[in-house]
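One-letter codes give the sequence; the integers encode the fold. A sample entry reads:
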Amino acid sequence: MFTTPEGSFEPTVMFFGLTNSPAMFQAMINELLRDLINTGKVATFIDNIIIGTETEDGHDEIVAEVVRRLKENNLYMKPKKCK
């Protein structure tokens, strides 16, 4: 975040030329979903979140939890890219 004459500005996308941006984003996603990753229900790679359950029981709840955490942290997803 930085200040401009019109007020504070916080970018919603990464600027070109920033170094380590993907690594920092990966670290942030890992921290947001750490407990789900540790249980083996979620795997992440940069901007991909994979939710895997052995049965359909509880799958919707995990999806809802991931979406809730993304929303709480001002992150979003494109539903048309979800399977």
Notes: The CA atoms of residues 51 and 60 lie 10 Å apart.
